[in-house]
Amino acid sequence: MPLLDDHYRSVLEGFLNYMHIERNFASNTRESYQNDLMRYLLFMQERSRPMAAITAGDIELFLQELFAVGLEATSMARNISAIRSLHRFLITERLLDFNPTENLHQPKLPKHLPNVLSIEEIMRLLEAPLTQTPRSKYALRDKAILEFLYATGVRVSELVNLYQQNLYIEAGFVRIFGKGSKERLVPLGSSAIEWLIRYQTELRLALVKHHSEDYLFLNARGKKLSRMAIFTMVRDYAQEAGIEKLISPHTFRHTFATHLLEGGADLRAVQEMLGHSSIVATQIYTHTDRSFIKEVHTTFHPRGR
C-alpha cells in the first residue's frame, strides 16, 4: 500500500494535531480531512512535489482527477477546503513562504452533474429484485447484475459483453475489457461473488441455449442482454425502491467511485478500477499492485466486506 514518506507524513500529522488541539474540530471532520489530505499528499508525492514546490497548477490537476472519477460536488468543495486549510496552516507556522491556494481556481462544475446514490439508496436498490411483488422469475439474475454493477463500477457495454471465463471467483477478481480493448482486473467483493455464484448455479443453467456462447448474463432467449434491457431494468428497480432520482446503469459507476473516495480510498487505485487514463497524458504512473487494489476495495467499498 502506498505510504507517505517522512516529509509528507510530518506535514499531515502536524496539521491534524493543530485541528485537534488548537481548533478543537469534531472527530468526524478530522477524519474526513485526514482522508482527503492523505490522498492529496500521495498525489504530490507521486509527482515528486515537496510541499514548498507545489503550485496552483499541481493542485488543479489533482482536483481535475477527482472530478474525472466522479466525486460529488459537495465532496469536491470539502477537498478544496481541506487543501486550503493545510496550506494556510503551513504559512502560519512559517513552514512555507508561498501559499499556492491563494490564486487557486476551482474547476468548473459540469452543467449536469451525475446523480450519485447514497449508501441507503443503493442498499434499497440492491434489494429491490428480491422484494418486488410479484417477484420476477429473473430476480436472481437481476440481483446479481445490480450487485455486480455496484461492486465493479463497470460500464454497461462491459457488463453485457462479459464472458464467464473472465470471472476469477476464487481470486475475487473479474477481467474487464474496456474502451479500446484496454484490459483491467477489478475486485468483486464478497456480496457480488455470492450472488454471481447463485445466479450461475440456480438460474443461468436454465437460460442457456446452444447459441448462448459464454456470455455471463443471458435473457429469456439465451442470448446476451442488450444495453437497453439493462437501462430498463435499473430504472424499473429504482422506481420499485422508491428512488426519485433519474438514474441509469452509469449511476452505479459514479456511485461506486464516490463511495470509495468518500471512504478514503486511494485515487490511483480507484482510477485503475474504473479503467480511467490519467488526466495528465504525459504523466507516467507506476503500476498499482493487485493486492493493493483488492485491499482498497475490501476496505472502502460498502459491499466489499
Describe this structure in words.
The chain starts with 5 loop residues before the first helix and ends in a 5-residue tail after the last helix. It has 305 residues and is mainly alpha-helical. The chain has 2 domains: 1-109, DNA polymerase, domain 1 (Orthogonal Bundle), CATH 1.10.150; 119-254, hpI Integrase, Chain A, CATH 1.10.443.10. It has helices spanning 6-22, 27-46, 56-68, 73-92, 119-131, 139-152, 156-160, 190-207, 227-240, 249-262, 267-274, 290-300; strands at 167-168, 173-177, 183-187. It is elongated and about 70 Å long. Helix 2 packs across helix 4. Strand 1 and strand 2 form a beta hairpin.
What composes the largest sheet?
Answer: 3 strands, antiparallel
User: Oligomeric form of this entry?
Assistant: single chain
Q: Give the structural class.
A: mainly alpha
Q: Strand content of the residues, in percent?
A: under 5%
CATH class descriptor name of the largest domain = Mainly Alpha
Label the overall shape.
elongated
Number of strands: 3
User: What distance separates the N and C termini?
Assistant: 18 Å
So how many helices? 12
Fraction in helix: 40-55%
* CATH homologous superfamily annotation of the largest domain: Intergrase catalytic core
* Topology order in helix (H) and strand (E) letters: HHHHHHHEEEHHHHH
> What is the fold named in CATH at topology level of the largest domain?
hpI Integrase, Chain A
- Quickly count the domains: 2
- Radius of gyration based on Cα positions: 21 Å
Sequence stretches where pLDDT stays below 50 over 5 or more residues: 278-288
Mean pLDDT: 86
Main sheet strand line-up: 1-2-3
Q: Examine the secondary-structure arrangement and name the CATH architecture of the largest domain.
A: Orthogonal Bundle
